[in-house]
Amino acid sequence: MIDLRQTFKKNILREFKSSFPRFISIAILLALGAFVLIGLKVTGSDMRATGNQYFSQHKMADAQVTSAVGFNQKDRNYIDQMDHVKQSEYSIYKDALTSDSHKTIRLNEKTSQLSVYRTVQGRLPKKSNEIALSKYEKGNYKVGQHVKLVGNDGKKQAAGLKHSSYKIVGFVTSSDYMQKSDLGVSNNGKGQIDTFGVLAKSGFSKQTPNVAKVSYDNLQGKSYSDQFEKQLNENVDQAAPGMAKRADKRQAEIKQDKREQLKDAQTDLDEQKENVQEKKSQLTQAKAQLEQNQAKLQQAQAQLADSKEQLAQLPAGTQKNALSQQQQAKQQQISTQEAQLRSRQQQWQQNSRDLQDAQEKISASEKKLTDQKEKIDQISGLTYQLQARNDYNQGYNQFGEAAERIDVLSNTFPLIFFAVAILVTLTTMSRMAEEKRTDIGAMRALGYTKFDSMKLFLVYGTSAAVLGTAIGAYFGTWLLPERIYDAYAANLAVPSLQTPPSWLWISISLLFALLCTVVPSVYVVWKSLQEQPADLLVEKPPKAGSKVLLEKVPFIWKRMSFNQKVTVRNLFRYKSRMFMTIIGIFGCTTLLITGFGMRDSINGIIDNQYQKITHYDVVGVYDPSASQQQKDDYQKQVDDIDSVKKQDSVYYESATAKPKGSTNNQQVSMIVPQHQKDFSDFITLRDPDSHKKLKLKNDGAVITQKLAKLGNYSVGDHVSLKDSAGRTHRVKISGIAEMYAGHDVVLNSNYYQKVFGEKVEYNAKMLNLKDRSSKNIDQVSRQLNKQDAAVTAVQSNQAKTAISTVLDGLNSIVLIIVLASSALSFVVLFTLTNINVSERTRELATLRVLGFYQRETVMYVYRETSILTVLGILVGFGGGYYLHHFIMETLPPNNAMADMALHWSNLGLSTGLTLLFSLIVMLVMARKISKIDMLGALNSAD
Amino acid sequence: MAYIEIEHYSKVFGSADREIRANDDISFNLEKGHLMVIVGASGAGKSTLLNTLGGMDSATEGKVEINGKNIAKYSEKQLTTYRRNSIGFVFQFYNLIPNLTTLENVELASEISPAALDPAETLKQVGLEERINNFPSQLSGGEQQRASIARAVAKNPELLLCDEPTGALDYKTGKTILQLLQDFSHQDGKTVIIVTHNAAIKAMADHVIEISDGKVKEDYLNDQPEPVADIEW
């Protein structure tokens, strides 16, 4: 393309000017293809790169261990020497409520090595009364302000914290809390952690660490890479049994400690008992003596009475006086003795009462001791939870899955876009080469070389390809990834997306673009160049007419109107264009239906899930080993809540399952209803297809659809569930139930006993509320969690908010897809009709001369286009059905499923839009047809 | 009153300062049933005149009255109606629609015309009864032109306009075509205008107009038009 002569250059430039609509159409088609291809291809890796940087900035821990009782030195030694542990850091966390907004806040000890906090404003806490808050609290608080923290009752100072009020010194980000809300489960407040804060170690009153952050030395590759995730999960899986054993040991130690304490108490008690025994015998002795004394006294009294009688018989005299005095003295003596005896008796009685009290006390203590003993025996379920990133950090998982979803999308959508763009560009460019036949002939006749005659196409095709790719690459590199990121990251606390240009995908797009602009035109020109220049100067005769198959069926053919016959003939005359149009419209309708369908499907999750399947609002989980009084209080609280419509006891446990063939664990809610009959008032278990109700059986559990899909399970298979203590149980599947959000495993008490080897102990209240607003649900959860027996409250609408946020974001993706598909279908229709019209200019001119009105002329051509459009739309229904189905199978996260149904409104809208574009193109073409120079067109040679 | 009355008609292209007067102050009359030949060199303005007469373009100035109606200022739609009902065209290149059979090409015209003749009958008149189910590509040039004439005639137009009807044909075939046109005028009483650069054809006409530089140079009647068979060129 060097050394182009001046006029030659002018000729090429003029070609751009004269066929500007064609040039722009090609560029737009290629731009759309590149936009969608580059956009979807880079988003996943952009996201992962952004995430990776964020994680390494925060030195995110690979795994963490938590313990309800904290870690002692032995635990720490154990953890430190676990296989492949490179680094470990122990810290404290504690939940409390903010006294002003009643948000559940998790307070973490400041870490320095793993999962560190990065300040976005201010600094990290140093003194015991300082706090740094999540950056999402920046709108609510200011540095220098104080935040008051209270316990679960909303009044008292929170247990485990040194102060009730902390001074805010900064705002931070953390890689451990990637979700903006619902950061995890807590037994405080409404049951979900709302926000987090960082304290210095001295800010806690209890100094035993209860979380260990761990990093491994054998992890290779970046976060989210298969290699990395597999190795990490392997490490955790390998360490789990040891961890469980360690927890059992620690539990035994605790029991031992407690038993020893109990033993001391027992010894004390035994001593006391002995004392009491001694006192008792003393008392008995004292009683005997008292009785003796009394007898003696009575004897003395009797003697006295005798002597009194004797005295009375004596005559008065000195003897008598003396005796009388003697008697009086005796009398006095007896009275004193009597008084003495009485007081002794009283004292004895007192002592005896005291003894009784002591005895009672002892038996009470004894009972207490036995109670305690029993309790110690009952202590169980102490677990050290070792969790990999994916499990301890829901956001990490969600983020990675989102990126993966886009990867899946990127393998389908761009394909269709590019396929349609390629087809149409190909047609256009080869058509252009055919149109330029005589020009090439003239140039060859003038003595230009073959290569010279090709230059126009090389320049034209290359510029269209480069322009299209440049536009597509520009928008594809940032616009599409950012919109998608916004959608997926709507409820994630992640930094803004990095969008470096991906030269790989830009090159691939450019290559494709060049392939479809340059190659076909060069091919057609090359073919023409094989002919003699003289032959080239004569225009190729238009395609000869021929009969169509339908004419051999006179039954139908004869009944058709003239116009219909002409249309049918024309349809089959340009077979390749017929297929192009159908394929083009098919592709666009497919994309439109998929785009609208994606939105409907995700909307459908909420409708189906919360109106047809889930009827409960809260599961209040309590501690079954709490005292009877506490449990009664909990029940009373449930009964007192006005808005409870229906309640039942269930066993509720959050377990994990690892479906076959997946690297990540899935959170599963295991539910055992107390009353099977009424359970459908809380959750409808029904067959996904027939909607028949499923019954719980004694030999298997009902699992939900998505879990079955993930593991490719069918009825009769077994699924392994890992309980929170890390123990695995095999559960047989007796039914698969429809469910859109989350995984559930529901079993009856008999089957529970069979699998877990013990009788089920109901630990939760499942509640249906009259007022189902999230405000009321939060309120009820908070009330329940205030109870001493409360463990947590699980809300059924947690997924709802998450889905709604994703949905909002998805709308903008759908909008982009719909806009891009619309543009595509418009350009396709325009280009194909444009070719159709220019190829048949002479024919149209003839019609005009014959006196066809403008409308009739347009319809002569457009009847074909309309039929092809309608055919394309109909085929597009099929394509849309399959593509939508495919995408909605892969797009939702692993714990959600979309509603697969296509709505009539979607089909109507997609059809309507395509027809609208067709109409607009028709109007444009009508103008073009009316501008045809009749005489000019007709006076050229055939 | 003459069938065609043209008075001070001009057709101007381009803007005021760079105007091209393709037809400049043309006036003539043509009687109903006459065969007119308009002769002129290339670029003389014949085609523009034909365009205006055929209702493919409106006039810039003057009066173009056909059968009492002044079409000079007709709108696009009125012109179309005029073409549809009153005009039949025959071109140098036959412009048959390749995807329609001979019969269908004629039907295409008769379908839209209110006073149409029977298409098959018309084809018989031009001697194509054997070829009615053939596609244009299967016909010779002369046959195609005959089909084209049949298509123009089948509409039963008041005026038949022919633009170099023999331009692409050999001598012999050309003559049979001209004969057909002359018969159409002299036997069926139709008004026919033939535009050509071939001055030899003048002899067959009732009325001859010579055009040069957009102006009428000659305008005369032939009292004794020669039969086409006698003309040689």
TrEMBL record, chain A:
GO CC list: plasma membrane
TM regions (residue ranges): 20-40, 413-433, 454-475, 503-526, 578-598, 813-832, 865-884, 904-926
Keyword Membrane: yes
Record InterPro entries: ABC3_permease_C (IPR003838), MacB_PCD (IPR025857), Membrane_comp_ABC_pdt (IPR038766)
Pfam families: FtsX, MacB_PCD
Membrane topology term: Multi-pass membrane protein
Compartment annotation: Cell membrane
Protein name, UniProt field: ABC superfamily ATP binding cassette transporter, membrane protein
The organism of origin for this protein: Ligilactobacillus pobuzihii
Automatic annotation (TrEMBL), chain B:
SMART domains: AAA
GO molecular function: ATP binding; ATP hydrolysis activity; transmembrane transporter activity
UniProt keyword list: Amino-acid transport, ATP-binding, Nucleotide-binding, Transport
Residues covered by the ABC transporter domain: 4-233
BP GO terms, sorted: amino acid transport
GO CC annotation terms, alphabetical: membrane protein complex
Family annotation (Pfam families): ABC_tran (PF00005)
Family: Belongs to the ABC transporter superfamily.
The protein, known as: Phosphonate-transporting ATPase
Organism listed in the record: Ligilactobacillus pobuzihii
